Amino acid sequence: MTHGLWQKPTAVNNVETLANVPAIIANGAGWFRKIGTDKCPGTKVFTILGHVEYPGLIETDMGTPLREIIFGYGGGIRGGKKFKAALLGGAAGVFLSENLLDVKMDFESLKENKAVLGSGAVLVMDEDTSIVDMLFSIAKFFAHESCGQCAPCRIGTRQILNIIYRIRQGGGRVGDLENMLGLAETMFRSSLCPLGQSLVMPVKSALENFKDEFAMAISHAEKS
Amino acid sequence: MSEMVTIRIDGKEVRAAKGDNLLQVARDNGFDIPGLCFYEKITPTGDCRLCMVKIEGRPGMVPSCLVKVDAGMNVTAFDAQLEETRKMLADVLLSEHNDDCITCERDGDCGIQDLAFRYGLDTPKRTFAPVWQDVPQAPDSSAPVLFYDSSKCIKCERCVKACWEIQGKGVLSMGQRGIYSHVVAGTGQWSGSECDGCGECVQACPVGALMEKPVYGAKLKKKDVERTVVTTCPYCGVGCQLELWIKNDKIAKVKGADSVPNYGATCVKGRFGLDFVQRPDRLTRPLIRKDGKLVESSWDEALDLVAQKLGAIKKAHGPAALAGLSSAKCTNEENFVFQKFVRTAFGSNNVDHCARLCHASTVAGLARSFGSGAMTNSIEELERAEVILVTGSNTTETHPVIATRIKKAVLFHGAKLIVIDPRRIDLVKYTEKYGGMWLRQKNGSDVAWANGMMNVIIEEKLLADEFVKTRTEDFEAFKKVVSAYTPDKVEKITGIPADQLRQAARLYAGAKCASIVYSMGITQHTTGTDNVMSMANLAMLTGNLGKEAAGVNPLRGQNNVQGSCDMGALPNVFPGYQAVTDVPAREKFEKAWNVKLDDKVGLTVVEIMHQAAEGKIQGLYIMGENPMVSDPDLGHVKQALEKLDFLVVQDIFLTETAQLADVVLPVASFAEKQGTFTNTERRSLWVEKAVPAPGEARIDWEIIRDVSTRMGYKMEYSCIKDIIDEVNKMVPQYAGITFDRLMRGDKLQWPCPNPEHPGTKFLHRDKFTRGLGKFFAIDYIPPAEWPDAKYPFLLSTGRLLYHYHTGSMSRRTVALPQYVPGPFMEMHPQDMKRLGIADREQVKVSSRRGSIETEARESDRVDEGSVFITFHFAEAAANLLTNDAFDPIAKIPEFKVAACRIEKIIS
Questions:
Q1: Considering only alpha carbons, which residue of chain B is nearest residue A178?
Q2: Measured between CB atoms, which of B92, B134, B154 is closest to A152?
Q3: What pLDDT does B883 receive?
Q4: ipTM of the assembly?
Q5: A-to-B residue pairs, Cβ atoms closer than 8 angstroms
Q6: With contact defined as beta carbons under 8 Å apart, do B363 and B355 qualify?
């Protein structure tokens, strides 16, 4: 990029970043570095939502374990149900299963675990939640949001939506999951803007971390 | 020239200009990277993503169509991952496409079909199920010439960009979003949009989504085309190159050919209006009037009769009793032979043609100012002009493909457009919004505004001193006259506010290169020659001559009106503007033609009609003209033609004029013969035979040759080359435009003095044709007729996009009358309200010469107190009303100003 707004050099930052600036100037970088982890100093705003007792916004140190966010700040799973999954970072985020509950919520640690911090959203799902349903609603969101300019996003979002819809209706077929994943990866490689590139994360993480659930949906369909 | 750099593509070193399009460079060097949305004529879009490549140092894949070549770039065009990605994209694209190839016209000529074939994606091998049936489709067949099938649309946006970037129209856009996105014309339906049917979108579509309607008969697949023939469009003076697709010896489809001057673009007439060629009412046998009726005859009988009758008139009353009208629709060669026929076999200079009615004042005026009466610069140069001043030219409708150049200059190259026109023409939309101006002058006040602008330019010292000093003469006398035309005085005459005039003068004079474009709003006045010379004055004063992207550019109306003049189908000059009164010139032609030639200037079109009415002209030979619709004061024309002893008409149809003839000779149309048309920019363009002529119709020059020989002046042309060879010998400007070069595909602009000469892009580079440019001191003279109490409205006449000249061609097409079926009059809503006339109500329009009934249409294009009627329609012929008062020098009638009265019809 060679120029920005009104053909001038332009800094684009979100409010969260800019909100740190006065405190750093007032208290010094040393103070800021004491908070959070070595590589990710400071705090992070998280949005806790879904099946928790206390949904809402929190600000806490970078690197706080996911478990503490859900079970500490969020007050645990609503109605005493069991934890099943968390979607981190928004619709274009990553599904995590129980075995990653202790992951530290900072850029580096999440990257190591093929997840993202993204918008800071932590969407919590209890044991009754269908990941297939969840992925369906995410696909629907992307199909709706696609502007339609580039082919991979315009048609790819629709194809993925159609496949998940079919699986959900009991019409899943062998190969659906590979095709869906392959398409999401092609979209990632070839889409014009990040919208079309984004579906790969939820699709890939859902299929990897909740493989059995998808496999079962399809094998049921194959049998019947 | 931009810097040449070396890049690597799949290990191969490739040289390219820095900044070149990477996809284009790769393809040019043999790397067949797929891609559907890329189209050389528009900016790249990057929609289909098929042309993804890898570039060292950049993450992932990038679409090569959006990459500009830079030194040292290392590109991977093909590897397994790229091909796998492309294949999946193709698979996905196919799922959105209704691949009903069996019935699709684009079968065998389709981007997505080729893609499916390339990646072996026959239906069972596709991964993804069709999605196009899932979504509501938005087909649109409301346009007369094309239909849009959204189920086949791949949303590549080529049509959208072609409409904007090639045609400068911007009618199309993408509507909806996501999988629902599709092409939309205007705000909804094609028929309600501003689409004028040029078909640029159809030509740009890589698949079968946008298709021509079968205006030429049936649907047609490209593979069923028997041959394609590139030829020159018969409609206007732009000279668009067309590719005719022929099947069963009929024109089956028309595409724009990718060469100068149009580079693939056409207008609605060129692409969808050539079916007149194959109408069943084409003349196929000679007709002779017997007992008052025209009956079929043999060629021998007809030609003998013509020669005998004309010969008898000549013998009894002398050469001055005969006259001939040549045709701006015919080729150069036919015009050459025709004028030679009149000058030799008839023995007089009584030869003229409809240039008299359009640009006689240009030929006369520019010849006086510069020494040659033609467009000084070239069409392409308009795109590089800083300022374009368009006056008296509704370019969008009369020269549509030139209008696209003007629009592109404004939209994409920062040019400022000044429109000076009494009507709110389409080009006005491209003025104020983009830093230009629209000045609305009173009809016929052109000398006044030009003098006013020049007054400002001299007062404010914006003139080109050096140019005026070294390249022109008679400046002082001119300056004296102009000094009286202060902006305030000019405001009183023209109605143009003084401040606007000053601003326009500054804008025009301030440009490094400014181009004047004009047409019949300047020429068709009793002061036509004065108007033209005023344009010349204005350009000379600012040094806008003899250089690129400047000049004085009259847009010639008919396909070969420039050539007909060049070939001497005029009463005062031999071919090449060599005066009949000039002794050496006459001797040259006498020697070559071996005959004594008339040394007196002959009669013009209007004079021929007057003398026919008086009984002085008794025999008239008309080749391809229709004065019964085209000439002023038609009532008088009819009397004149009926008074003739003998009238011969050669035409492709039984026109209004042919119906009055004693002998009618059927001829080949443009599509059935060879020859050349010279377009408005002096460019000689080849016309190729595409289909056989119907019945016994013959080629114009062959008929003239045979009549001439029968009348005693033997002509021995055996083929088109014989005539071209003679033109090369006799017409200095065409000396180098040889048959061999035409065959080779050269499209040369005259002057082209020898076979090695590359032709002349713009005139008067180092000196004017006449030596120094001559300033003329010109005073404003009002039009011959002006509204008064009895005839309170100002009537102006002109053309429409959808029709051409007397309608003999355009009205015999399937498509064009769907846009405009018949006559109408533009009238201001306030005037209609005042007279209690409803929109589309039939009214009676009368002038001192006649009256017609036509439909009144509400329009803010005309000013209050003015009306506009097109002259295409014989049933409400505008020329029954027009004034045949003419310019004293050029003898051009004042078609643009007459006084008329408008009345409701009380039934």
A1: B127
A2: B92
A3: 86
A4: 0.91
A5: 91
A6: yes
